[in-house]
Each structure stands twice: as structure tokens, then as C-alpha cells.
Amino acid sequence: MSQIKSEGKSPITLPTTLQTTPQSISQSNLQQSYQPLAAKIRPTSLDEYIGQSHLVGPNKPLRVAIEKHQIFSMIFWGPPGVGKTSLAKILAHAVNADFLELSAVSAGKADVREIIDKATISGKRTILFLDEIHRFNKAQQDYLLPFVETGRLTLIGATTENPSFEVIAPLLSRCRVFVLRELTNEEMDQVIDRALKAVHAKMPKDAKDWLSAMANGDARQAISMIENAFELYGTLTIETLKNTLQSKHLRFDKKGEEHYNTISAFIKSMRASNVDA
To answer: Count of alpha carbons within 13 Å of 154, Cβ hemisphere only?
Structure first.
């Protein structure tokens, strides 16, 4: 803990976590140098953002909220790699709010308490981005509730699971749920072109088409494939991409939405005699 003295006033004690030292600055620079490509080319404004036109297109709800500098608690529900984190950061920047992130996989009440303390000290509007919010249990979600209710925190949760089943009703009623969709082939082409430009590489059209189909609307997976294949082989072809991938990831969860989506696709493939349905 450190103290800041003000003339005629009692010293103000700052938590150790908020102190800045040369060591912490050098560590921050080191972390930035090792950032994955997906983080380096993350969009910082709606003009750079790709996808989700039903939410951020002209006169759509999130664009209107940004233009009017209005922010409210919300939950982004959608598959991986469709821009949930990026959109949350853009919203926070647009309204000049402090943006603090937690992963519900590893965070607990103490982490939320620390963020509340930081928000109190800063005095600025604070957005808590809670990734994988469905991983918070009922007690942890209950703990969040009063801070969201009073406005001390603006919550933006991200989840791949149906929030109606995973988020407690009192918290859900104080948030607006926005569904984010898989990126289209055209949007994936834009993502791939941006990644290629960042690594100063070229890719033939057949490799682009293969990568877009393989990623299945997941921008982060496509960007990671480009980064890894280029680092390993120095060239981007279907062969080098396949060598890097080794095995395709199947989006599936035993008890969640993707379980039923997979069953539905299987049934449709049998009806139409189409193995790629």
C-alpha cells in the first residue's frame, strides 16, 4: 500500500494493485510484444468492426447507443470468435468509461470486490466485461446484482450458452440480451485480408476459401491459423494451413446449444442426403 499526502488533508491510501512501477511498465511492454495477432488487429471503432450489422449497422441499437453516448448493462450471446470482446471495448471507449475485464472461469467475489474498489476510487463510469458469464454460479451472480442494480457497475457479459438458462432471472432482467451471429463468408474474407495485411503476406484464393470454410464464421480461429502457418512455413497455402491445423475443431457442447445444433444438422443431412449440411 502507498499513501498520497494532500496539504491539510489526511493521506489517501491506494491499493498496491493500482500502483505503477518501472517494473510493471516494462512487463506491460513485454506482454504487448507477445500479443497474438488477433489482439494486435482488434478493431477499436465501429468503422473497423466487421460483422453484426443487425446490431451495429445504421440505426441499429448498439450504434444508436454509441452515437447517443448511452450505455446499459447487456449480455452478448454468440459463438466464439464473432466479436463479443471487441464490441464491448468499442462501447466502453465510445462513452469514455473505464473498462475492466474478468473471466468467470477463474474469477470470484474477491475479484469483483477489487473492481468495485477501483471504480469507487476512479469516480468514472466503469464497465465490467465478464467473459464466460455462464460459468459464474448463482451465489457469484447474486453478489454482482446490487452493483449492477445501483449503477456502480455497468455489466457486459459474454457467453456462448443460452443466458435464459445460465444467468439468474434478477440479473438477466437488468440486462439486455444481444445475439451475435457467425460471420458470413464475405465478412470472413474481410477478416482474412486484414490479417494478411498485418503479417505482410499473400494467400491464393483457393486457400482463402478453404480457410473461411474451415473457420466456420470464427474470426479468431482464422486469424490464429494465418499467424501460426506463416510463422511455421513462411507461406500460406492450403497445404501449409492443413499442416498447421492437423485436425478441425468441431464446435460441440454436451449439454448446451451446440448439442442440439449438431443433432439438427445431422437430421437435415439425412433428409437431403447431404453429408455437408
So the answer is: 19
pLDDT tens, position by position, 70-110 = 899 999 999 999 999 999 999 999 999 999 999 999 998 99
Q: Which residues pair with 2 in a beta bridge?
A: 14
Domain regions of the chain by residue span: 38-179, 185-245
144-193 per-position pLDDT tens digit:
999 999 989 999 999 999 999 999 999 999 999 999 999 999 999 999 99
| Measured CA angle at 189 (ends 48, 193), to 5 deg | 65
Question: Grid cell 450471446 — which residue?
Answer: 77
CB atoms within 10 A of CB 146: 10
Give the Å distances, CA to CA, from 185 to 195, 218, 230: 15, 10, 22
How far is residue 231 from each of residues 188, 244, 245, measured CA to CA in Å?
21, 10, 13
Read off the pLDDT of residues 217-245 as tens digits, 9 standing for 90 and up. Answer: 999 999 999 999 999 999 999 999 999 98
Q: Is the pLDDT of residue 3 over 90?
A: no
Asked if residues 50 and 44 have their Cβ atoms less than 8 Å apart, the reply is: no
CATH class of the domain comprising 185-245: mainly alpha
What is the DSSP code (8-state) at residue 95? T
Q: What is the dihedral of CA 54, 69, 85, 100, to 10 degrees?
A: -160
CATH T-level topology, domain 38-179: Rossmann fold (3.40.50)
State the alpha helices, DSSP H only, in 216-256. Answer: 219-233, 238-245
**CA proximity to 93, closest of 121, 124, 114, 117:** 124
Give ∠ CA 49-62-119 in degrees, rounded to 5: 95
pTM value is 0.78
